[in-house]
């Protein structure tokens, strides 16, 4: 099939590449020329394992191309995906300006009947807004072109996006015209060989399904962070609780890790947008409010506690391991490390930081910022450090060579924001080891 994907970010580029990989002819459109120039050279604009090989292979095979020119990019498309960003507006609601602009351009330049599919995460009712914009442009063009609007929210996880797209658990599809189901069946047939993963529903339900899924996962994280605080108070171990809780098949083991709070480009924004939708429709969502509030407190609390633990040091220095919001990605959007770094810098703490993927993104966030140095390895952060702070659970931080760490850094304070290390072992080694919900309260602030 001829497919166009508008937006070549984390979702759009993976979608375009994976659809090309199974034989569709795909054109990716983006308004960011710098990104397109990089892609033309075979340089990936994002860090996503496995993506580069698929993109390069399919560009060479002529299955995948990129352009900033809508007229050329959408002319012959049978299916057009909208995969542009939906960042939060000031009130937390999703900013739909990119989605509506891309829909408008599609309607302006498409030359055949097509299906316009929203893959971006958009609030309930957006399908109707897109339909209205499209109808207006088509009416001004005259003629008899027909564009149906469908919803097909994306569930890929950054860091595992290629695999998630090629082997989806489910493909949620919201349609308003029964005949559009056949188009989705053809489109996704290569991903559906061993069982049918399409879950068909109406468009509004599909739009809500995406927010409900992210809000549910965020709820589990905030819930465990709250249980972790209680564990700290009473001297219990949230890790034991997690294992006990997750062994119940009705609950399951996923997303039950206490930590420094959720971040990234999706959970914070989608929780806020769902909240705003509830308010807009006169149905305040109290659980969602609490999920957001607990997360804000968790991030703030961690940052303040690291800062306060260093108050007695004359020229405090921190070694920071991990900056990306989770392992496997260079995405720094709403990463908990950002608040931590800003809080420590404000307090005059010097930071040496390392992340396996996010160094370039971080240099752009804190350009020439005095007080923070970006290092080339975990070890190079350690000399002179009073405290080691671990924020992202990359594999390379999980089993440090402790004698070597102790040789390199004078301090023995460890803030373990992901509960990576055994508290008993660290105690025996003489560390003040602060983890999350493991029975050792943080120093009170
Ligand atoms: N990142 C994820 O893990 C993830 C997962 C599921 C869903 N989503 C949703 O998918 C959407 C895209 O997210 P992302 O992380 O890929 O965003 P992104 O910021 O990485 O990419 C968006 C791209 O769209 C381009 N763009 C913006 N307006 C445009 C326009 N009018 N025409 C052409 N290109 C335009 C931008 O230049 C950018 O390259 C969001 O709604 C997000 O919530 C993201």
Q: Which structural class do you get from the secondary structure elements?
A: alpha/beta
Please write the CATH class name of the largest domain: Alpha Beta
Radius of gyration: 24 Å
Helix content: 40-55%
CATH homologous superfamily of the largest domain? NAD(P)-binding Rossmann-like Domain
Total tally of structural domains = 2
Number of strands: 14
Any idea of the CATH topology of the largest domain?
Rossmann fold
Compressed to H and E, one letter per element, the order equals EHEHHEHEHEHEHEHEHHHHEHEHEEHEHE
Features:
445 residues; alpha/beta; Rossmann fold; six-stranded parallel beta sheet; 13% strand; binds nicotinamide-adenine-dinucleotide
Description:
The protein has 16 helices and 14 strands. It has helices spanning 10-21, 33-40, 51-60, 70-74, 97-109, 126-141, 161-166, 180-188, 203-234, 238-246, 267-280, 286-309, 336-346, 359-365, 402-408, 423-428, and strands spanning 2-6, 25-29, 64-67, 79-82, 114-118, 147-151, 171-174, 198-201, 317-321, 350-354, 372-374, 387-390, 413-416, 432-434. It is globular and about 75 Å long. With 445 residues, the protein is an alpha/beta fold. The N and C termini lie far apart (60 Å). The protein folds into two domains: 2-201, Rossmann fold (3-Layer(aba) Sandwich); 233-434, NAD(P)-binding Rossmann-like Domain (Rossmann fold). Residues 6-12, 29-32, 35, 83-86, 98, 101-102, 120-121, 154, 156, 158, 265-266 line the site of nicotinamide-adenine-dinucleotide.
């Amino acid at each position: 099939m001829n497919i166009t994907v508008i937006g070549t970010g984390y979702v759009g580029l993976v979608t375009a590449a994976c659809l090309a990989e199974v034989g569709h002819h795909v054109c990716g459109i983006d308004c960011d020329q710098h990104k397109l120039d990089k892609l033309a050279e075979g340089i990936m604009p994002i860090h996503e394992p496995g993506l580069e090989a698929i993109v390069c292979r399919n560009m060479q095979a002529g299955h995948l191309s990129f352009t900033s020119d809508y007229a050329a990019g959408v002319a012959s498309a049978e299916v057009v995906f909208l995969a542009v960003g939906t960042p939060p507006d000031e009130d937390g609601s999703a900013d739909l300006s990119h989605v509506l602009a891309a829909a408008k351009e599609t309607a302006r330049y498409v030359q055949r009947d097509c299906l316009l599919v929203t893959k971006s995460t958009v609030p309930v009712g957006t399908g109707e807004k897109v339909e209205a914009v499209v109808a207006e442009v088509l009416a001004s063009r005259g003629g008899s072109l027909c564009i149906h609007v469908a919803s097909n929210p994306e569930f890929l996880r950054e860091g595992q996006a290629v695999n998630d797209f090629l082997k989806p658990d489910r493909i949620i599809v919201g349609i308003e015209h029964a005949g559009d189901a056949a188009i989705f069946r053809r489109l996704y047939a290569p991903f559906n060989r061993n069982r049918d993963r399409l879950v068909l529903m109406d468009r509004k339900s599909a739009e809500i399904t995406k927010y409900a899924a992210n809000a549910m996962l965020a709820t589990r994280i905030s819930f465990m962070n709250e249980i972790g605080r209680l564990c700290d108070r009473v001297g219990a171990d949230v890790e034991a609780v997690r294992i006990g809780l997750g062994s119940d098949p009705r609950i399951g083991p996923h997303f039950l890790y206490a930590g420094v709070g959720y971040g990234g480009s999706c959970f914070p924004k989608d929780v806020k947008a769902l909240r705003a939708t509830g308010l807009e429709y006169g149905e305040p969502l109290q659980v969602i409010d609490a999920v957001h509030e607990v997360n804000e407190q968790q991030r703030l609390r961690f940052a303040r506690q690291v800062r306060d633990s260093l108050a007695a040091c004359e020229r405090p220095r921190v070694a920071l391991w991990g900056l990306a919001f989770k392992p496997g990605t260079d995405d720094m959007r709403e990463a908990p490390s950002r608040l931590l770094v800003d809080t420590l810098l404000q307090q005059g703490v010097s930071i040496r930081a390392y992340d396996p993927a996010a160094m370039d993104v971080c240099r752009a966030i804190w350009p020439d910022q005095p007080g923070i140095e970006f290092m080339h390895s975990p070890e190079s952060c350690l000399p002179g450090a009073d405290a080691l702070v671990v924020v992202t659970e990359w594999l390379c931080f999980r089993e440090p060579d402790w004698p070597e760490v102790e040789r390199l850094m004078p301090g023995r304070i460890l803030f373990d924001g992901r509960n990576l290390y055994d508290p008993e072992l660290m105690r025996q080694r003489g560390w003040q080891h602060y983890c999350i919900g493991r029975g050792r309260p943080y120093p009170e602030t």
